[in-house]
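ok so I'm stuck.
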Amino acid sequence: MDTKLFDSERKVMEVLWEADAPLTAKEIAAKLNDIVGWNKNTTYTVIKKCVEKGAIQRREPNFQCFPLIRREEVQTAAAVELVDKVFDGSASLLFASLLSGKQLPPEEVRRLRTLIDELE
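replied:
not stuck anymore, here's the structure
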């Protein structure tokens, strides 16, 4: 499974992840019509691409869609790609960029320290 998803594919997956249950293609189309104004054909085309990538499994009856990848897998793949492309593979440069000029609340600093400690 290629965990790299285009923005449109991620929108479909977000609807499934938020539902935390299988949805029919019709239900996904209705939600995406409300959220981003897509018509049914656009949504069905994107669902088909997700099925081809192995991100969604389609089952009958009623064209039910089941997510086959977790949100965290997609987030991790996107973060690795960002670090590789923009920060020459350096996570510390990414963090420095995120933190420069931004005052973090003490609880966020503690959370980041805990994450770093767990990695060591």
